[in-house]
Amino acid sequence: MSSAAPTRQRGVKVLLHGAWRSFAGGAKEVTLEASTLREALDALAERHPSLKERLRDEHGKLRPHLALFVNDEDARLLGWENARLREGDIVHVIPALSGG
Amino acid sequence: MSAKTVRLLVGTKKGLYQIQSDADRKKWTLLEGSYGAPAPIHHASYDPRDGSMYAAINSTWGGSRIEYSRDMGKTWTVSKNPSFPQGSDRTFYQTWHVEPGHAKTPNVIWAGTEPAALWKSLDRGETWELNQALDDQPSRKEWVPGFGGMGLHSIAIDAADPNKMQVGISVGGVYTTNDGGASWTRDNTQVGAPNPTSGETPRPDVFGCIHKLLAHPRVSGVRFMRVHLEVYWRDPGETTWTYRTTGLPTHFGFAAAIHPRDPKTAWCIPLHDTKRTAEDGIAVYKTTDKGATWTRHDQGLPKGAPLESLREGMDNDEFDDVGLYFGTANGDVYASRDEGKSWERIAQYLPYVTSVHAATLE
After folding, report:
1. Do B62 and A20 touch (CB under 8 A)?
2. Among A27, A32, A89, B94, which lies 20 to 30 A Cα-Cα from B138?
3. What is the H or E stretch that residue A23 is in?
4. CA dihedral of residues B88, A51, A70, A9 (deg, nearest 10)
5. Across the interface, do A50 and B62 touch by the CB < 8 Å criterion?
6. Which residue of A has its CA nearest to B64?
7. Which spans in chain B are helix H?
8. In chain A, what residues touch B88 (CB-CB under 8 Å)?
9. Is ipTM beyond 0.90?
10. What pLDDT digit, counting tens, does each position of A80-99 carry?
11. Residue A54 is nearest to which of B63, B84, B86, comparing CB atoms?
């Protein structure tokens, strides 16, 4: 039996910030099971279907101006959607700011 | 029967505002609270068939979306996004126009988007289906972006027959269907336009840059079209566009309106073609002879003000005399109760106004 598949963890908390709360009907946080950031976002969209089209375009690509952090780390530095999650991690979903 | 009033849906670069008139259209009230800010609202419309409202909310965060309201804008619901098919090289970017369908097709709503495409809803805006026949046009490869992007923004449904309609695309020209969108033909034949003095051939690219195309709401076949550097008229039975630009101070512009009853009357706001502002002060030009002649109207408008009104910036109500309304880039909204002869400012200090839609309520 292969051990390549990541082990699903419990107790990952996703915190929604700013506009993302309104897209989720006012929800501020969601606790779910996931071993990668991609799994966490998929589970989040299952929990709040209104987020599905807000997180990704029709081809499945994550939308721009979306900042994702795992605990205090920018997810881009952790492999973006492939970032591994551990028990107790906190994922922040933030409307990214840019420009002046 | 209650008295008629007007509700203006004012789209801005930071949210949707609503302005309500009294029965005389003399007192205007900016309703409390905007919706959707900081997202720009390219267009919002009211459907007189069932009282729904639609808003094209083109948000930086979470992507663009169309929302609908069944309670006069108190609450809004997000549509399922227009979605290009899997395998397409295009992604829905933003909505430029939402057009309620014909009275004979009660649940149908149309939307025009960027990338340029036409979408049809059969369920009052809850879901959207790509019009494949227009998308399959071989000439689509010739469409190019204009200054504001490449969008389908005008959806002109015939007064008598919902199967007959035109769409206007920047920059892609006009397409006509006579079978409800099952098939389309290019519809860009113009007559009367002067050849360029340089001796060059007329510029088909410019004619392709449609700025606003309107169908008369009661007289089948009448169309008024604001193109990049011209305006055109079409009468019932015609299959060409007649050049009607002579008499306007500048040839460029976006905002346009057509009289809801008289099939010979229309209005537009000319702008300078490079400055994009009114050259000799903001003014509304009116024709009562299908564009053969134009008359300037600026009474009540700020003298010499170089204002700008965009593609969706002008609309009319259904009163007699017709009320006209336009918004400006500096956040003003102006109203006329006498078919454009005189004007007053009814709102100011709004964000940059991108659209004005006048709903006549009874």
Report:
1. yes
2. B94
3. helix A19-23
4. -100
5. no
6. A54
7. 132-135, 204-208
8. 59
9. no
10. 999 999 999 999 999 987 66
11. B63
